[in-house]
Design goal:
By secondary structure, this protein is of the alpha+beta class. The chain is built from eleven helices and nine strands.
């Protein structure tokens, strides 16, 4: 459908007296007209790439009727027929007990006029691929993709599924637009003149609990001598608790009296 919509076709009726010069379609015999309406092989390939089933029917007037059916709708209809939960919903629809569900003319069950997608991960991924990775979708963001898909499809926890899918798309991450000003040139830190004048700190968290109920490590590095302190801690400690643990570490390593350190 995306391929055919690029052609602007108009049909206009001309009465017999206005049609002075007959065109090729009016003069050609039926066999020639059949050849004109036959689809070329490359067009069949385009339909196949768009996952459209092309059904050609010959009528009594020796003309061809071309019908394009999306294969995705047929896959959803088959998956719905194999879902026991939807079988129960189908029975409730026939009994009039599920007003929010309807059986569409194509045989699919719809929830608020949206195609109900069963709990089949391959089918959901196929829908997300069609809405996000095709040349016509240009890798839209999660909110835009969700608004686009919810117009036609529905399944439980759909918004979270769309967000997880877009977050894993490498193309979307590479072309992500930055809304911040450029950081500018890097500025080197001043070289410290004496040990422990300048330190760097880092926290290693989400570790297994120890016997003292510690689950993190506080790493303190002296930028001048590269001396490092590793202090066991908990990820719920406050700033005062961190300061107290650091004082205890200095007393233990350097043998400085705690009264002097506190001062």
């Amino acid at each position: 459908m995306e391929f055919l919509k690029d052609y602007d076709v108009h049909f206009q009726y001309h009465p017999g007296k206005a049609n002075v010069v007959a065109d090729a379609l009016s003069c050609g015999p039926y066999p020639a007209l059949n050849r004109l309406l036959e689809l070329p092989s490359d067009l069949y390939e385009e339909f196949h790439m768009m996952e459209l089933n092309v059904i050609t029917l010959r009528t009594q007037y020796m003309l061809y009727v071309i019908e394009a059916r999306p294969a995705l709708t047929e896959d959803i209809r088959i998956a719905q027929a194999m879902d026991p939960q939807l079988e129960q919903i189908r029975e409730e629809i026939l009994e009039g007990k599920a007003p929010e569900f309807v059986i569409h003319e194509d045989g699919t069950i719809r929830f608020h006029n949206q195609v109900y997608v069963p709990a089949v991960e391959t089918l959901k991924k196929k829908i997300l691929d069609e809405g996000h990775n095709t040349p016509h979708s240009v890798h839209s963001r999660r909110n835009k993709l969700y608004k686009y898909l919810k117009q036609t499809f529905w399944w439980s926890n759909m918004k979270q599924k769309v967000a997880e899918y877009v977050a894993k798309c490498l193309t979307s991450q590479r072309v992500k637009i930055e809304h911040q000003q450029p950081a500018g040139l890097l500025q080197l830190l001043d070289i410290p003149a004496w040990k422990w004048d300048s330190v760097s700190m880092d926290f290693v968290v989400r570790l297994p609990l120890t016997q003292k109920k510690n689950n993190a490590i506080w790493v303190i590095v002296d930028r001048f001598t590269k001396m490092t302190h590793f202090i066991a801690m908990r990820n719920t400690w406050t700033l005062d608790q961190l300061a107290q643990a650091y004082l205890e570490e200095i007393v233990k390593l350097h043998g400085v009296p705690s009264s002097i350190v506190s001062d």
